[in-house]
Amino acid sequence: MNKLTSTMRTMVLATLAAVVMLLGSPGEAQAHCDGLDGPVVTDARAALVAGRVDRVLKWISAESEAEVRTAFDQTVRVRALGEPARALADTYFFETLVRLHRAGEGAPYTGLKPAGSAVEPGVDAADQALQRGSVDPLADAVAGRVQAAIRQRFARVAQLRRHAERSPADGRRYVAAYVDYIHYIRALHLAVSGGEAHSH
């Protein structure tokens, strides 16, 4: 990916992030996959209570399953030694599970986040849509913001195109707007068609 395409992709993602910020403030955000109150650790707690590691295997790749099973068995044994040991063992299991989950996403593991930590607004909005059982408000908000950004870029390049031949300076202004417009559309197209790798 060249530098200009990377810049345009960043602009598209920033636009999408701005849209979902409309749906909830960061103060309302809940922790996500690396949070102590996120879905991965929530399932890990339930697995330990139930004594069933299969409750967390969905969060990791098949290649990581043996490591998670081993960590789970070790955690269960150490938990029996008392409360201090239980807390330490639980943290070890949570960290192992989250680290392997993040690796499966191609993301670095940066430690467990405290309960109540804010997450990216887009992630929170996506989770809230799932909890509500409807993606329509999120999809409509994103679509409206993206349409506005496309129309704004189109209007600018169309206006500058009319004067592009007046002088080299006018021509350069047109070309700069044209490149911005084309790369924005291309980045959007790649994002919605799966043309570039997803990063969480």
Overall mean pLDDT: 83
Unreliable stretches, pLDDT < 50, 5 or more residues? 17-31
- Radius of gyration computed on alpha carbons: 23 Å
> How many independent structural domains?
2
End-to-end distance: 18 Å
Got a strand count? Answer: 0
Can you tell me the overall shape? elongated
Describe the model:
The protein is mainly alpha-helical and 200 residues long. It folds into two domains: 82 residues, no CATH class; 67 residues, no CATH class. Helix content is 66%, strand content 0%. It contains seven helices and no strands. Helix 1 crosses helix 5, helix 2 packs across helix 4 and helix 3 packs antiparallel against helix 4.
Write the layout of secondary structure elements.
Blueprint: H1 3-21, H2 39-50, H3 65-79, H4 83-105, H5 121-132, H6 136-161, H7 168-193
Helix pairs in contact: 1-5, 1-6, 1-7, 2-4, 3-4, 6-7
How is this structure best summarized?
The protein has 200 residues and is mostly helical. The chain has helices at 3-21, 39-50, 65-79, 83-105, 121-132, 136-161, 168-193. It folds into 2 domains: 3-24 and 134-193, no CATH class; 39-105, no CATH class.
Quick tags:
single chain; 7 helices; 0% strand; 200 residues; mainly alpha
